[in-house]
Amino acid sequence: MLHAILRNKAGRIEREGESLRWRDLFKGSEDLLTATFFGRLPHLSDGALGAVLRFLLGDNPLDPATFQRLELWPKLTSLQDRRYVEPDVLLHFGDALVVIEVKPSFGGDQYREQWLAQVNAVVSEAEFDDYEDRLYYVALGNIPVAPLFPPDLPERFVQMTLREWEPLRRYLQTASEFVEGCRQDRAIRDEWLQAFELFGMAPVVPEWAPLFAYAGLLDLDCGVMSERETPPPAEPTGWAALLDYAGTLHLSRPDFSFLNH
Questions:
Q1: What parts of the chain have a pLDDT lower than 50?
Q2: How far, in Å, CA of 65 to CA of 13, rounded?
Q3: Which residues pair with 230 in a beta bridge?
Q4: Cα–chain-centroid distance for residue 86?
Q5: Which residue from 10, 15, 37 is spatially nearest to 192, judged by alpha carbons?
Q6: I need a labelling partner for 253 at 20 to 30 A (CA). Which of 41, 64, 119, 199 fits?
Q7: Residue 209: its pLDDT value, please?
Q8: Helices (H) and strands (E) in the chain, counts
Q9: What pLDDT score does 198 carry?
Q10: Beta strand 157-163 with 135-140: parallel, antiparallel or unpaired?
Q11: Cis peptide bond prior to 61, omega within 30° of 0
């Protein structure tokens, strides 16, 4: 479906009497962003899943081989003053649970009251008792300044981390588990990067501007792009350095109009 939408082949859908392109519907949906990104996590190799966990949690304390299942938008009903609480993502591991609240860059901000409701609902759910004190909470996207700390963060939570989409996008471009990983992991990473563009979460000219800025610092022989001599490590110059740097970027839909500004 993602490929059909990216190439304008998905057609239109009727919504409240209005005909909308799937592409336009996708671009404004927090839930579709959540499903597009996290729905692919179970298909990653252990190494690539470990890399994503390392970004979300810091020094990865979880063994990706113990991952069991993904749960999207669970309804937690244990709090007496609410009908239910609905975190966006639960990642179930053999002896740990990662709870994730997602806000897209085009949506509203994360807010403390929602975090408090979710962490308290999780520790009140009997089905999560087996995880004991191996709970993790992540706020992804549009984050304020500070996470929850004890006593606001219940004792069973190891930590709360705050993460943003743009650092995640850049991390996926450079993490060795994806750059040097298997074909499946690279394909999933490429789909994520395309989806970020669809959701307006990547630069209009994704990485060409920094590439040309870096090229201006190098001594490039005109037209000699086939020579891949290894530059001195201390002062990288020439086409080899430029091509190596380009390999770390996400270059798509080349539009060099920025060169005229």
A1: 205-206, 224-234, 253-258, 260-261
A2: 40
A3: none
A4: 20
A5: 37
A6: 41
A7: 62
A8: 10, 7
A9: 83
A10: parallel
A11: no
Confidence (pLDDT) at 226: 43
Helix extents (H) in the chain: 2-6, 22-27, 30-38, 46-57, 112-124, 165-174, 176-179, 183-198, 208-215, 239-246
Q: Are 252 and 206 in contact (CB under 8 A)?
A: yes
Tens of pLDDT, residues 121-153:
999 999 999 999 999 999 999 998 799 999 999
For residues 153 and 148, give the distance between their C-alpha atoms in angstroms, rounded to a whole number.
5
Tokens 């897209």, located at residue: 104
- Residue from 58, 148, 50, 156 nearest 101 by CA: 148
The token duo for 145 is 């300044």
* Domain residue ranges in the chain: 28-169, 203-261
The residue among 82, 118, 125 whose CA lies nearest residue 103 is 118
| 3-class DSSP string for 188-223 | HHHHHHHHHHHCCCCCCCCCHHHHHHHHCCCCCCCC
CB atoms within 10 A of CB 246: 15
Whole-angstrom distance, CA of residue 209 vs CA of residue 22: 30
pLDDT at position 249 is 62
pTM of the predicted model over 0.85: no
- Fold for 28-169, please state it: Trna Endonuclease; Chain: A, domain 1 (3.40.1350)
Question: Torsion over CA of 137, 143, 148 and 154, rounded to 10 degrees?
Answer: -30
Q: Which amino acid is at 122?
A: V
pLDDT of residue 257: 45
